[in-house]
Amino acid sequence: MTNSIPTFAVDPEALRQTIADALGDKAKRVDLKLGEVTVIVTPQNYIDAARILKDAPGCQFEQLLDVCGVDYSDYRAGEWDGPRYAVTSHFLSISLNQRVRLRVFAADDEFPVVDTLTGLWSSANWFEREAFDLFGIVFEGHSDLRRILTDYGFIGHPFRKDFPVSGHVEMRYDPERQRVIYQPVTIEPREITPRVIREEKYGGIQ
């Protein structure tokens, strides 16, 4: 019995061109770097582009592998110039043995919103909930967008670059009330300066 899944040697440049032709003006850019194809689209074209990547001949990315949020506010030590929040999705074509990355930037830094992919791939459900929980990115059309990793009373989004290391609130058990309570963080922030210790003749260097 032979394996029924075909294994093709995918030419990255040919794949980039196939995707670019399929998407047309739905894509802002279709880049090839380190053998990987990345598609960048506007929020208005996000769902249409994702649908084309799923269904178009030569693309056929049937499987959604991951959806994650990105906060670019401190990218390259603050040199980033552009929208702050992005959503990056990774797709796999099982039938054609090829992959692609799709990235969309939210238009509003204060209230980042992009469309949900759950109507095309049900596996986007928990991925998008995670990005909402950790980055505060809202996925419009998601049927159950609520926190998935942090607690119900958690304040803020801990993967944002401006989120304090110590957080905003802390949780403790109150023996008088006999329940868990939340209160403002009482940890005093401190600045830790790393020290470089050089030992004489370390590593055989004179």
Describe how the helices and strands are arranged.
Elements: H1 12-23, E1 29-33, E2 36-41, H2 46-55, E3 63-71, E4 85-93, E5 98-105, E6 113-115, H3 124-135, E7 138-140, E8 169-174, E9 179-184
Parallel strand pairs: 2-5, 6-7
Antiparallel strand pairs: 1-2, 3-4, 4-5, 8-9
Identify the notable features of this structure and list them briefly.
206 residues, Beta Polymerase, domain 2, 3 helices, 9 strands, five-stranded mixed β-sheet
Structural write-up:
This protein has a domain at 12-149: NADH:ubiquinone oxidoreductase Nqo5 subunit (Beta Polymerase, domain 2), CATH 3.30.460. 17% of the residues lie in helices and 27% in strands. The longest helix has 12 residues, at 12-23. The protein is globular and about 65 Å long. It has helices at 12-23, 46-55, 124-135; strands at 29-33, 36-41, 63-71, 85-93, 98-105, 113-115, 138-140, 169-174, 179-184. The strands form three sheets. The chain has a five-stranded mixed sheet. The chain has a two-stranded parallel sheet with strand order 6-7. It has a two-stranded antiparallel ribbon with strand order 8-9. The chain has 206 residues and is an alpha/beta fold.
